[in-house]
Specification:
about 190 residues; alpha/beta; Pyruvate-ferredoxin Oxidoreductase, domain 3; 6-stranded mixed sheet; 8 helices; 6 strands
């Protein structure tokens, strides 16, 4: 019998709260009784470069890295980074992406154009695709910086982890002054 491991990839650019979201996801999975392994790749993340976090959980997990083509869920904070990571997701996998475009330096300097048709490309390849306006929902919840928590809420509905563990993980990982807004953002995301 093969062991069931859930493979989640979180991708985006530095400063979007990807590492906090992966910490909350990992904590919620541990509270639910799973073995959890996590790995992060920071590509000049402090300067808006790529950030990728691998989170794997199950009864027993040996490696923190999601093998190419075996990701169950791609959790994208920015559209181009989401598209870049599609090869890591298995056929029939789930993609939850923030409807956000952050232009890299080459686009800002006019050397290249931001790619067109990214949403269509994702939806053509992955029928289980949810596009979320994380910034707008987070603004309505009280703070645009809680967009990562909105997205986490949307992803949480697709994972076998009870809401109580998510709420406990948020309480543990989010600073007290930001907890109320993040709880609100998470619950709105869960309804998507």
């Amino acid at each position: 019998m093969t062991q069931q491991i859930t493979n989640v990839l979180l991708v985006g650019v530095g400063g979007q709260g990807i590492l906090l979201a992966s910490e909350i996801l990992s904590e919620a999975a541990m509270l639910a009784g799973f073995d959890v392994k996590k790995s992060e790749i920071h590509g000049m993340s402090q300067r808006g470069g790529s950030v990728v976090s691998h989170v794997r959980y199950g009864r027993e997990v040996f490696s923190p890295i999601v093998p190419e083509g075996e990701g169950d869920i791609l959790f994208g904070f920015e559209l181009m980074e989401t598209c870049r990571s599609l090869p890591l997701i298995k056929r029939g996998g789930t993609v939850v992406a923030n409807d956000l475009r952050i232009s890299p330096p080459s686009v800002l300097m006019g050397q290249e154009s931001y790619p067109a048709g990214l949403v269509e490309r994702i939806s053509d390849l992955f029928p289980d695709f949810l596009l979320v306006d994380g910034q707008e929902i987070a603004r309505d919840a009280g703070n645009v910086r809680a967009a990562n928590t909105v997205l986490l809420g949307a992803v949480s509905r697709r994972l076998a982890i009870a809401e109580e563990f998510w709420m406990k993980a948020l309480e543990k990982m989010v600073p007290p002054k930001a907890l109320e807004v993040n709880n609100r953002a998470f619950l709105v995301g869960r309804k998507l």
